[in-house]
Specification:
With about 325 residues, the chain is α+β, with helices and mostly antiparallel strands. The protein is about 60% helix and about 10% strand. It has one domain: Beta Polymerase, domain 2 (2-Layer Sandwich), CATH 3.30.460.20. Helix 5 packs antiparallel against helix 6, helix 5 packs parallel to helix 7 and helix 7 runs antiparallel to helix 8.
Length: about 325
């Protein structure tokens, strides 16, 4: 296997839940009479394309799908097999969950060929189950287990989004208007909604792809496999509903955020208006007394300034009393 880095792993399935890991020589020598085989390839390696086009015996359209750089979940039936493209959340260290990782699968009655660009935890889980004798018993069962594993791995990421929305709600609703940092909450809310929209963009087609796989009339798609696929469809549907709930709750938080910002702005404008209303007549009086012409009352009296200040204070007090009586304050 070290001489062929394009091969991530290959297993001969024993039909009882176990599998023996094999090397590249066994992959090239494989024939259907030797039993089911799973071949998992790294499509970033140029040798993968060479083998798929020259030695795999697959149709050109199938090879193009297995090597495509950008993919959306889908399921296409062919005369000799099925191509399924699925996606899972990116759980690699330092990666964002919404940066979803694609897995391309070609499945026949006795063979599965899968390719990936980046590592998927669901594939490692499957390898561990094969080593423990708890893995898939057939190629079709393997695809169903992969779909279920990818869906199961989505759960914690979706639950985390729900928890983040709940935290933002508590931050915004628990205290008074001045308690939360509205700017920080707004930025977190925008990022959370972006993640939810991106995840739903790929997860919704994945439900359609698994549903499409269920409808294909292949004799090797046994009832046990179809049952697992139905469970996967149900789980994906619940995940989509949870994402919709995240989006709806985010909209509620955003409405409350806008309401808080509007209330804060209205309060500021209200205070400024009252201040301007109180100061307007006072400014008029002081401006009138400040004109530089003769005949201003009290110009020769040393007590005139204090008398005017006292009169202005009394006038302001009367204004404030009047505003309170009219319930403007």
């Amino acid at each position: 296997m070290t001489d062929h880095p394009e091969l991530i792993c290959a297993y001969m399935l024993d039909g009882k839940g176990g599998g023996a890991e094999v090397d590249w020589q066994a992959v090239e020598a494989w024939t259907p009479d030797r039993g089911p085989i799973w071949i998992h390839l790294d499509c970033t390696n140029p040798a993968t394309e060479t083998w798929l086009r020259r030695d795999s015996g697959l149709d050109t359209f199938v090879v193009d799908g297995l090597l495509a750089g950008e993919t959306r979940p889908r399921c296409d039936g062919f005369a000799d097999g099925i191509m399924v493209i699925l996606r899972g959340v990116n759980l690699n260290p330092g990666a964002e969950p919404e940066d979803m990782v694609s897995l391309r699968i070609w499945v026949e009655e006795h063979r599965v060929i899968s390719t990936r660009l980046r590592r998927l935890q669901a594939i490692q889980d499957l390898r561990d189950h094969l080593a423990e004798g708890r893995g898939p018993v057939s190629p079709a069962h393997l695809v169903a287990r992969v779909a279920a594993g990818l869906t199961e791995r989505m759960g914690p990421a979706i639950e985390e989004l729900g928890d983040l929305v709940a935290d933002l709600e508590e931050q915004l609703l628990a205290g008074d208007e001045a308690t939360p940092n509205l700017r920080e909450v707004r930025f977190k809310l925008v990022d959370l909604r972006r993640v939810a929209i991106t995840l739903r963009r790929y997860i919704a087609p994945q439900r359609d792809a698994v549903n499409r796989l269920l409808t294909l009339n292949e004799p090797w798609l046994k009832e046990r496999v179809r049952g697992r696929l139905r469970e996967t469809v149900d789980r994906v549907t619940r995940i989509i509903e949870e994402l919709d709930e995240v989006r709806e709750r985010s909209a509620v938080v955003q409405d409350e955020l806008l309401s808080r910002q509007s209330q804060r702005m209205e309060r500021v404008m209200y205070i400024l208006t009252l201040v301007a209303t109180v100061m307007m007549p006072l400014g008029f009086i002081t401006g009138l007394l400040g004109i530089n012409v003769g005949g201003i009352p009290g110009a020769e009296n040393h007590w005139s300034f204090l008398i005017v200040c006292g009169g202005l204070a009394l006038f302001a007090a009367v204004e404030i009393w009047l505003f309170k009586k009219m319930r403007w304050l």
